[in-house]
Amino acid sequence: MTKKEKLFKRLLGLPKDLRFEELDKILVSVGYVLERTRGSHAIYTKSGANTLTIPRKSPVKSYLIQQVLEEIGDTLENMPDGMQNEQNN
C-alpha cells in the first residue's frame, strides 16, 4: 500500500486527529491547487469543482473532512477495489 493510499484510507476513517498537512497532500494528489493563503485559511481550487477553504489548523475539524470527502467523492470511486470497500463499510 502506497503512502497516498494510506492517507486516503485514513481520510475515509474520519479521524479526529488528521493534520492539515495530511489533508493538503490529499487535496493536491486529487488535482486541487493551493490558490492562495489568506490569513489562517488555505484556499484550494480545481477546474469543474467547488472551491475549498480550509483553516490551517491541526487537527482538522470533522465537518471539514466530510466536506472534502463530498467534493472528492468521484476520485475515490476510481480508486483500487480494496479502497472502495473501505469507503462502503
Protein traits:
alpha+beta; disordered C terminus; 89 residues; Metal Transport, Frataxin, Chain A; 17% strand; globular; 3-stranded antiparallel beta sheet
Short description:
The chain is an alpha+beta fold and 89 residues long.
Task: Please give a structural write-up.
There is one protein chain. It contains 5 helices and 3 strands. It has 89 residues and is an alpha+beta fold. It has a single domain, classed as 2-Layer Sandwich (Metal Transport, Frataxin, Chain A), CATH 3.30.920. It is globular, with a radius of gyration of 13 Å. The two termini are 19 Å apart.
Could you give the topology of this structure?
Layout: H1 3-12, H2 20-29, E1 33-38, E2 41-45, E3 52-55, H3 62-71, H4 73-77, H5 81-88
- Helices and strands, in order, run as HHEEEHHH
Could you give the distance between the termini? 19 Å
CATH architecture name: 2-Layer Sandwich
Helix content: 40-55%
Q: Which strand-content bin applies to the residues? A: 15-25%
Q: Which class do the helix and strand fractions yield? A: alpha+beta
CATH topology value: Metal Transport, Frataxin, Chain A
- The number of E-state strands comes to 3
* CATH class category name: Alpha Beta
Number of structurally distinct domains? 1
